[in-house]
Amino acid sequence: MKELLYKSFSSIMALLVLFSTVSFTVEKHFCGDVLVDVAVFVEAEKCKMEALEILQKKTCCKDEIDVVEGQDELKFSSFEDLDFEQQQFITAFAYAYLNDFEGLPKQIIPHKDYSPPNLVTDIQVLDQVFII
Question: By C-alpha distance, which of 33, 97, 101 is closest to 62?
Answer without folding.
Answer: 33
